Amino acid sequence: WVRDRVDGWLSAPLLRRAELTLVARLSAGSALEAAGVAPILFSGAEEADRLVGLLHQRAQQLRFGLALSREWDREPGALALRRSLEARGHACALHLADEWDSLAAMTADVAVVCGEPGLYRPKPAQLNVLWAPAGIRPTRCDEWDLILVADESQAAALQTETPTLVAPLDLDSKADAAEDLLELVAGAAAREGVGTGILAQA
Q1: Which residues contact 110 (CB under 8 A, 6 or more apart)?
Q2: Is the per-residue pLDDT at 157 higher than 60?
Q3: DSSP three-state, residue 132
Q4: Are 63 and 109 in contact (CB under 8 A)?
Q5: What is the pLDDT of residue 86?
Q6: What span, in angstroms and rounded, lies between the C-alpha atoms of 164 and 145?
Q7: Measured by CB atoms within 10 angstroms of the end CB, which terminus of the chain is less buried, N or C?
Q8: Is the pLDDT of residue 135 over 80?
Q9: Residue 168, Cβ neighbours under 10 Å: how many?
Q10: What is the rounded CA–CA span in Å between residue 117 and residue 160?
Q11: Residue 201 pLDDT more than 60?
Q12: Angle 178-189/75-87 helices, nearest 10 degrees?
């Protein structure tokens, strides 16, 4: 709950990991929105019942973890996607490379790796999405549940090389990609061998 000293929060690692960010005034909300967070205006104790409702609603929604493969390599697209997902009620946190195997990262329902996966290894308890604007070797495709590439021709070519669902969705250039991503996540969750709980929430 950000009540004052917004500048200090903007550089705090906790801001990346928070699943729900509340602000005491609109001016604080504007600064956080510019940093890729979708805060909720919350005045205080008199709204305790509303806070319980917000927490309950958040618990019913999907939790996303955006893993950045290099230090803020895909920051603009990742922040825009986070803001869009949060605006739809889904919890969304950013994780840098040294946080990939943290408990916070592993509790997400959907893990989206942004860019070259490097040493990242998909987790069996999550739906694993790779956003690969620069492409990916077919030999690495099968360990993912969904792969996002830049255009339709690239998606069609890669789909012939792997049973993993491949779709064209450029998160860098699409102004609001959350709706498309949620639809693709639901499609991937509905495939054989993937948990159906995510499908219900998406």
Answers
A1: 62, 63, 64, 65, 126, 127, 129, 185, 198
A2: yes
A3: coil
A4: yes
A5: 87
A6: 6
A7: N
A8: no
A9: 15
A10: 21
A11: no
A12: 80
